């Protein structure tokens, strides 16, 4: 992310020259009937600057999620730059003692390489 007041703003992503809000994307996908919780992060990308990545806890274990169906659902609700290009299904999201999702650790989950492109 870029720096805001001396710290990286993890909730503003810059993708393809556009600034998008991770919080807005999360709010939108929380309305999805099969998503219990989600976290959106930016993954560094040579071509795009950052790619929008979403980690999802499905409501039902074993739910079939594909990036394409997720993007199709989101397309009616979000502009194209805000649609995730990486998807990761998780059982839980990393949280700090306050219960807040730790975005840097979500990025590490993607870097560990178990996402579906």
Shape: globular
Order of helices and strands: EEEEHEEHEH
Low-confidence stretches: none
Q: Please tell me the CATH architecture by its name.
A: 2-Layer Sandwich
Which range best describes the helical content: under 10%, 10-25%, 25-40%, 40-55%, 55-70% or over 70%?
A: 10-25%
- CATH class annotation: Alpha Beta
Strands in their spatial order, largest beta sheet: 5-6-7
| Total beta strand runs | 7
* Overall pLDDT level: 89
Strand count, sense and barrel status of the largest sheet are: 3 strands, mixed
Structural class label:
alpha+beta
Name the CATH superfamily assignment: ANL, C-terminal domain
Work out the helix count. 3
Cα end-to-end separation:
21 Å
Could you describe the 3D structure shown?
The chain is 23% helix and 32% strand. By secondary structure, the chain is α+β, with helices and mostly antiparallel strands. The longest helix is centred in the N-terminal third of the chain and has 9 residues, at 22-30. The protein is built from three helices and seven strands. The strands form three sheets. A three-stranded mixed sheet has the order 5-6-7. It has a two-stranded antiparallel sheet with strand order 1-2. The protein has one domain: GMP Synthetase, Chain A, domain 3. A hairpin with a 2-residue loop joins strand 1 and strand 2 (7-8). The mean pLDDT is 89.
């Amino acid at each position: 992310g870029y720096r805001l007041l001396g710290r990286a703003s993890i909730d503003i992503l810059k993708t393809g020259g556009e600034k998008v809000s991770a919080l807005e994307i999360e709010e939108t996908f929380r309305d999805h009937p099969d998503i219990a919780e989600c976290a959106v992060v930016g993954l560094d990308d040579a071509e795009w600057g950052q790619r929008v990545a979403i980690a999802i806890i499905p409501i039902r274990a074993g739910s079939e999620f594909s990036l394409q169906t997720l993007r199709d659902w989101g397309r009616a609700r979000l502009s194209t730059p805000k649609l995730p290009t990486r998807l990761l299904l998780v059982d839980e999201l990393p949280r700090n003692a306050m219960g807040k999702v730790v975005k840097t650790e979500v990025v590490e989950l993607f870097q560990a390489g178990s996402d579906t492109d």
